[in-house]
Design brief:
Elements (H helix, E strand, L loop, with lengths): L2 H13 L12 H11 L4 H14 L3 H6 L2 H8 L6 H16 L8 H5 L6 H12 L8 H10 L12 H10 L10 H16 L17 H4 L17 E11 L2 E4 L16 E2 L2 H9 L3 E3 L4 E2 L3 E4 L4 E13 L8 E3 L11 H14 L2
Iron/sulfur cluster (SF4) binds next to helix 9 and helix 12.
Length: 352
């Protein structure tokens, strides 16, 4: 077994995280769900979401049978909603194609929506104790520092080298032991708890004696910074229609990554919003009131949001799908984070 793997396994037995909710039991469903939730998100944030999710959907069949609204409601605030939509679709696919059993081969796992090479390997190693290397952001940072590679984590040309390195360091199989499962958790824990992006805790690190970055004083400067790229900016007007029955939300105003989520009617400009409003069966009781404009950042662009509030009363049947909602409805709906924060502001204002 490589010295690196042995040192990590010894450290994991003493100091690794062994009480995470998805480790009890370390079932394929729990591992898969946690891996998807942990993409772009830290453990401390994920734990309460994971616990709520498995209380509502304790197993794969219950997730497959759920409505999209119910799944998205439990994802509200976690962001990157395509993860939830893919999870839901994959559960249905597993029921239809794999008799409800999570597959255990790399090819079958990667054929499911939302599962890429590293997530498939994380499921194989942790749920099935197979020799499969993962390569998430934490692992890349550990490997780049340990080998003192002069690259950034997202350097496209270096990815094959990083995969090869990750595979070469895997432990060898010990009969009866859960070495592959523990090794995967150990290398993720090392990146998350000691070999952190800023201020790596090298004195406590189990692989410090062989770390090339530490030996050459580069532990703070590697990986190299990612090539910076200016994100484009977009604009959107949110129409906050408030009435004595509540505030209007609908499931069909989604755009981009917010498809299927409930939100305010949204438009490219205020004049477009007011034109739409004029065609609705609504009595308008107030002038439009612009709330402070704010920016929400997605992975590929910045979105400037301009909320405009108007008091209305219904005078017929709205053609758009949706309804006036109150605070009792919101926990049951999938809501983008900025929408939830505007709803809370509206609620505070209405009761002040
Ligand atoms: S010695 Fe420091 S830089 Fe090297 S792997 Fe350990 S924590 Fe990271």
């Amino acid at each position: 077994m490589s010295q690196f793997a042995q040192a990590l396994l010894n450290w994991y037995a003493k100091a690794g995280r062994q009480d995470l909710p998805w480790q009890h039991p370390r079932s394929p469903y729990y591992v898969w769900l946690s891996e998807v939730m942990l993409q772009q998100t830290q453990v401390a944030t994920v734990i309460p979401y994971f616990e709520r999710f498995v209380r509502r959907f304790p197993d794969l069949p219950s997730l497959a049978q759920a409505s999209t609204d119910d799944v998205l409601a439990l994802w509200t605030g976690l962001g990157y909603y395509s993860r939830a939509r893919n999870l839901h679709k994959a559960a249905q696919q597993i029921m239809a194609q794999h008799q409800g059993q999570m597959p255990s081969s790399q090819a079958e796992l990667e054929a499911l929506p939302g599962i890429g090479r590293s997530t498939a390997a994380a499921i194989r190693s942790q749920a099935f104790n197979q020799p499969a290397a993962i390569l998430d952001g934490n692992v890349k940072r550990v490997l780049i520092r340990h080998q003192a590679l002069n690259i950034s984590s997202n350097d496209a040309k270096a990815q094959p080298q990083l995969w090869q390195l990750a595979e070469s360091l895997l432990p060898s199989a010990q009969p009866g032991a859960l070495d592959f499962a523990n090794y995967t958790q150990a290398i993720m824990d090392l990146g998350a708890t000691l070999c952190k992006r800023s201020k790596p805790n090298c004195p406590a690190c189990p692989v410090a004696s062989s770390c090339q970055a530490l030996a050459t004083g580069q532990q703070h400067s590697l990986p190299l910074p990612k090539a910076s790229r200016t994100k484009p900016e977009r604009e959107r007007v949110f129409l906050l229609l408030s009435s004595p029955e509540g505030i209007w939300l609908g499931p069909d105003y989604g755009f981009g990554v917010w498809q299927d989520l409930w939100q305010f009617p949204s438009f490219a400009s205020q004049s477009e919003a007011l034109d739409w409003l004029a065609q609705q069966p609504l009595i308008v009781d107030s002038q439009p009131e612009s709330w402070p404009r704010f920016r929400h950042t997605f992975s590929h662009y910045h979105l400037w949001l301009q909320p405009v509030q108007i008091s209305v009363r219904l005078n017929g049947i709205m053609q758009a799908s949706g309804r006036f909602t109150t605070a009792q409805d919101w926990p049951k709906l999938g809501l983008p984070k900025p929408v939830l924060s505007l709803l809370n502001q509206w609620q505070q204002q209405a009761h002040s």
